[in-house]
Amino acid sequence: MKKLIPILFVTLLTSCLTLDDNLFNNAKLDSYKLDGYTGEVDFILDNSYQIPDSLVSIFTLPSQASGESNATSIYAIYIGDIAKITTDTVIMYCHGNKDHMDFYWQRAKLLANTKSKNRFGVLMIDYRGYGMSDGKPTEDGIYADVDAALNWLKSKGLSNDRLVMYGFSLGSAPATKLSAENWSMKPDKLILEAPFASAETMVQDGSGMAMPGDFFTTLEINNGEKIKSVTQPFFWVHGEADDFLNINTHGAVVYNNYQGTYKEAHRIPGAGHSTIPQTMGFSTYSNVIGDFITTQ
Amino acid sequence: MRFQPITLFLICFLFSCAPARFVKPLQKKEHAANLSLGGPLIKYGTATIPIPFITANYGYGIDSTFTGFAAFNITAALYGNFQMELGATKQLLKQHKYVPAVSITPIANIIYKNKEAKKLYPQLAINAFWGYGKRKNIVYVGVDNWFELASKRQYEIKQKNRWLFMPMIGHSFIQKKWSFNIEAKVIAPNLSNEKLVVDYVTPLKTHGAFGVYVGCTRKF
């Protein structure tokens, strides 16, 4: 027994349990149902937002993060005519932490119909471990996955000046990082909806104390710092009633730390974390996003 | 973004979930080892359960009114954080019939992960307790206080909450060598719990959390 005590002590101190595995709220799918999806969604658009089947493409992409020996197969959905990517403006939509692309399909459709019917191309992916994508979610993996999507867009003829990066919630991390750094493409504009500032801010908001994020997570996501390297025009929208990512401790920090050429803020009274488009009204939401994309 | 509920639960209360250590000091030169289990009540599926935080505690009676102790948070260690409490309980007043005895317990709560991630939280618990019956069982009420020394959070944001208080009530069943303890605590009733993913079960509904704890102590 005496021998066991120090072993137990050392085991505890060097324990490998981590909260990181619990951070990603992904769900697996056997197939994508899109409009036929009957699970929980934030909102459902009426038929005027319908996308013709001919403009919906579901395909896989190989994604390989640095240090990985093999590529991971991830799923992507492109809304628009792939043959016209050479001339269209495309929104790279980085979805949030919840579930999969079926959950975010309505949001992607809304963006595709921004300003007018099927105005913009939209590319959305399921990060590794989400939906039908293989693998397990990791921070580096998510960046690699979005970069794989950018690489595909580039191969289809998209130029940097027609690429708009859009990040919602968790998606604000790859959207900000890939806008700030040199990856396969350099987006021309950055849109963040309900972004979070950092993993540490989440810890501090959650605990109410000024605790180091390292106590709980190895995630290095720090949009509040990374945004300082973004020079492209920046659009921020956040619900004032966001009960998950506080507008002041998260979104406002990202917005205030932006040091680029142009930024605009949209604080939406009464909107929660997942209810910005509904609260604004789909038409208003669509118009302000569209105005930013077309005029900046 | 919606993280899985257990994550934010652990974030929120990993460090504030322990029962009172020694409400009544040990006898002079008396040793005691304690293991306690418990945490805030949350809804988990259809059930309401306390999350089982585990702490181990060792105390020594320096004199009959003053006990020093050290506690080790086993749950924190499982997540790679070294967390230890070093403290002492001093009895200030003796019980006179229905007028309770009073003790105070200052604690240094030390948490260490690495050079960049380390914290010291001073704590101060104040308890009133009554001994009764043949075995001198104890019932106690008190308040535990946590103090945040940092004035700023990440990004130089002002740290609003510098003081967390936790009212509590407990009972110790005293045996000759063993004692068993049960305690209920309202954790941070001054703070809203509405911006957390977890469904805390608390009488205050939108504020704080409600914790229950059990523990056993062996004196020797």
- Principal-axis shape of chain B equals globular
Class inferred from helices and paired strands of chain A: alpha/beta
How much of the sequence lies in strands of chain A comes to 15-25%
Low-confidence stretches of chain B: 1-15
Describe this structure in words.
The complex is a heterodimer of chains A (296) and B (220). Chain A is of the alpha/beta class. Chain A contains 9 helices and 8 strands. Chain A has helices at 4-13, 101-112, 139-155, 172-180, 199-207, 223-226, 247-257, 276-280, 282-295, and strands spanning 56-63, 72-79, 90-94, 121-125, 163-168, 189-193, 234-239, 263-268. In chain A, strand 7, helix 7 and strand 8 (263-268) form a beta-alpha-beta unit. In chain A, helix 3 (139-155) crosses helix 4. The longest helix of chain A has 17 residues, at 139-155. By secondary structure, chain B is mainly beta. Helices cover 6% and strands 58% of the residues of chain B. Chain B has helices spanning 5-13, 74-78; strands at 31-44, 47-50, 53-63, 66-73, 82-93, 101-112, 118-132, 137-147, 163-174, 178-192, 207-219. Chain B has a 10-stranded antiparallel beta barrel with strand order 1-3-4-5-6-7-8-9-10-11. In chain B, a hairpin with a 7-residue loop joins strand 5 and strand 6 (101-112). The longest helix of chain B has 9 residues, at 5-13. Chain B is globular. At the A-B interface, helix 5 and helix 7 of A face helix 1, helix 2 and strand 7 of B.
What is this structure's SSE topology?
The complex is a heterodimer of chains A (296) and B (220).
Chain A: H1 4-13, E1 56-63, E2 72-79, E3 90-94, H2 101-112, E4 121-125, H3 139-155, E5 163-168, H4 172-180, E6 189-193, H5 199-207, H6 223-226, E7 234-239, H7 247-257, E8 263-268, H8 276-280, H9 282-295
Parallel strand pairs in A: 3-4, 3-5, 5-6, 6-7, 7-8
Antiparallel strand pairs in A: 1-2, 2-4
Helix pairs in contact in A: 3-4
Chain B: H1 5-13, E1 31-44, E2 47-50, E3 53-63, E4 66-73, H2 74-78, E5 82-93, E6 101-112, E7 118-132, E8 137-147, E9 163-174, E10 178-192, E11 207-219
Antiparallel strand pairs in B: 1-2, 1-3, 1-11, 3-4, 4-5, 5-6, 6-7, 7-8, 8-9, 9-10, 10-11
